[in-house]
Write a structure and sequence with these properties.
By secondary structure, the protein is mainly α. It contains nine helices and two strands, in the order H-H-H-E-H-H-E-H-H-H-H. This is Protein-S-isoprenylcysteine O-methyltransferase Ste14.
Length: 219
Amino acid sequence: MKISVRLAFVAFVSTFAYLWLAIWGLGGFAAFFSHGALVVVALATLAMVVASLFTEVNLSSGEREDRANRWVLPAFGIIGLLSGFLPAYTDRVDVWTFGGEGVRWLGAVLYILGGALRIWPVFVLGKRFSGLVAIQPGHSLVTDGIYRRLRNPSYLGMLIIAVGWALAFRSAVGLLLAALMVIPLIARIHSEEALLRAQFGADYEAYCTRSWRLIPKIY
């Protein structure tokens, strides 16, 4: 698979910018990298970016797209920028923080697990995985493997990443931002389900009856 140099450049620049927000919020490189858990989080972030370069993720509108759902992209962007800075800042000024290094390490572990759950389905879906809510050419329904019981494992990974990031900074504000992410996430899931239902009909309905949207046995 050929890796786009332009895509790699954008991915690394945006990732370093995001990490810089956290470093700035916490008070600089010395403060950030004095915590082993945060070093692990930074390395895990870079590993996820490298892994993403070997996927076929795209922003293609495909054969059919729900353009009305595009509002979730800037919503995720705003929440993401706030999450990059505020948890680290509240950690530095010790406002709405809790726990100690144990909480940071719990966050680091969740961050890694969430990252794996986020990336794995992207490899499984290949070109069918788009940043837009769209049906791609030759789109087929995947109902086995990681998708056997869970219809949106990558989105669950996103939430676990957000919780892990918040805990790495011991930040209640970060947890609130993770909860806020649920709003556009659920809206996106509903849009995707409507599109898949229209595309695959009874097959998708049958799949829905034996699987969960986001959290096994709950939702």
